[in-house]
Specification:
Blueprint (H helix, E strand, L loop, with lengths): L7 H15 L10 E9 L5 E10 L2 E6 L7 E10 L1 E6 L20 H17 L2 E6 L4 H10 L7 E4 L11 H14 L3 E5 L14 H13 L3 E7 L1 H9 L4 E5 L4 H10 L2 E3 L4 H8 L1 H4 L7 H21 L6 E2 L14 H9 L5 H7 L2 H6 L17 E5 L12 E6 L2 E5 L15
Helix pairs in contact: 1-2, 4-5, 6-7
């Protein structure tokens, strides 16, 4: 492999990582840390004023409301569990020519990984401490390096490779899922429908869908299924799959089935589409990014908002946060959450829960992350303002902690008083 040249991308990576290497903001894991939260939104639907959070060895050990010394005084901020995005694509990027990466574009594996590292870093700085990245084998190494503490980034779960119509018949799909499990996948991604830019029609049969989801369950894995329309989504739910991605349009029967079966639904209302429209020239002419494809996305956006409003009228449906962040959208993930409230009429607390405890549970991590409580990982994000009064406040991220380590801190540090000399 050729040695990597000092490209603008590498300079960007270095500018991001050098501050962490030279003067890391991470708290020593063996030193207890305390945080004062002006408003605490704990991820369960409860709030608390002027709370102190005690952290040791990366875990929350206690919460109280007493006055006292703290390591980080966030008394002017709202503190929440680190946000969870259940649908991103960390390796998706624009090439140096400004266009969406194409397979025919010459790129080393090292360069591809650098793009993913940059996207992961942006996502963490935006307050997302856990993401599920659906679709690239590179995610596996990225996950492992972040987990070992070699790179700053959110906790990553990966599907490695997707199951689709080309995977083959039922037996071939089962073997494929078994191999994903052996390779270390956290989840199985299934394409039951075509891209919305191609019309979103069914591409997998009921037996194929069932084989993928049944085998994943047998391997102890979750399934997340790309699906559009009543007929396909109904098949996905009845097959026992874990989550439906996108959905976009479906009828009242599907809403009832989602509630009855406990199947998670991860819709997208804004960021995905707006990012495509804002960067139209960077995508147009590549694959199915055609004029017709963009027109279909515009229609899907309008239908998706209407379907979302109808869906959340049933409180028994498990609506999960997932932005589907691709090239151009990484680090802007919260825009999807803002849109759910402003355009989708979701209650502010419900929106926050969809990106904290509900999302954590959907990923099988509900006993570790997504909640600020004793024994949970110290994943925290703090923002200016009160998002329960104005959801747009979540754009104002000032503090990010993951596993007890501070990665972003725009608040003046607490300086303990100097010990005074004893008078003789």
């Amino acid at each position: 492999m050729e040695p990597m040249k000092n490209t603008p991308l590498i300079n960007l990576i270095l500018s991001l990582l050098l501050p962490l290497i030279i003067s890391p903001g991470a708290d020593a894991q063996d030193r207890p840390v305390t945080i004062r939260a002006g408003l605490l939104i704990d991820g369960t639907g409860e709030t608390r004023r002027n709370a102190r959070i005690f952290i040791e060895s990366g875990k929350i050990t206690r919460i109280d409301g007493l006055r006292g010394a703290v390591t980080h005084d966030l008394s002017n901020l709202t503190v929440m569990p680190g946000w969870v995005d259940t649908h991103v694509h960390l390796t998706s990027h624009f090439d140096l020519d400004g266009r969406l990466h194409r397979t025919e574009t010459k790129e080393t594996q090292g360069q591809a990984m650098l793009y993913a590292v940059a996207n992961a870093y942006r996502t963490l700085m935006a307050g997302f401490t856990t993401v599920q990245s659906l679709g690239s084998p590179l995610d596996l190494d990225l996950r492992n390096w972040i987990e070992r503490g070699e790179l700053p980034g959110p906790r990553v779960l990966t599907s490695i490779r997707p199951v689709n119509a080309e995977t083959g018949n039922v037996d071939m799909i089962r073997r494929f899922v078994q191999q994903l499990s052996a390779d270390g996948a956290d989840v199985v991604k299934v394409f039951a429908s075509a891209s919305i830019r191609d019309g979103g029609n069914r591409v997998m049969s009921d037996p194929q869908i069932k084989a993928a989801c049944e085998e994943a369950t047998a391997q102890g894995l979750r399934t997340t299924v790309h699906a559009y329309g009543t007929e396909v989504i109904r098949s996905v739910i009845l097959a026992g799959c874990t989550s439906v991605e996108h959905g976009n349009h479906y009828d009242e029967e599907v809403i009832e089935l989602l509630a009855d079966y406990g199947t998670y639904i991860t819709p997208q209302l804004a960021l995905l589409y707006q990012n495509y429209f804002d960067n139209r020239e960077r995508f147009l002419g590549i694959g199915n990014y055609t004029a017709a494809g963009f027109a279909r996305m515009e229609n899907a956006r309008e239908r998706g908002i209407d379907t979302f409003i109808q869906t959340i009228e049933n409180p028994a449906v498990n609506v999960v946060f997932g932005s589907d962040a691709v090239a151009g959208a990484h680090g802007q993930n919260v825009e999807e959450l803002v849109a759910r409230v402003e355009d989708g009429r979701q209650d502010e607390m419900a929106a926050i829960l969809s990106a904290t405890s509900i999302a954590a549970t959907a990923l099988g991590l509900g006993d570790r992350i997504g909640t600020i409580a004793d024994g949970f990982s110290a994943d925290l994000v703090a923002v200016d303002g009160n998002p329960l009064d104005n959801i747009a406040s979540i754009r104002n991220v000032r503090f990010v902690m993951k596993d007890g380590e501070v990665y972003r801190n725009e608040v003046a540090p607490v300086i303990p008083p100097s010990p005074q000399r004893r008078r003789r």
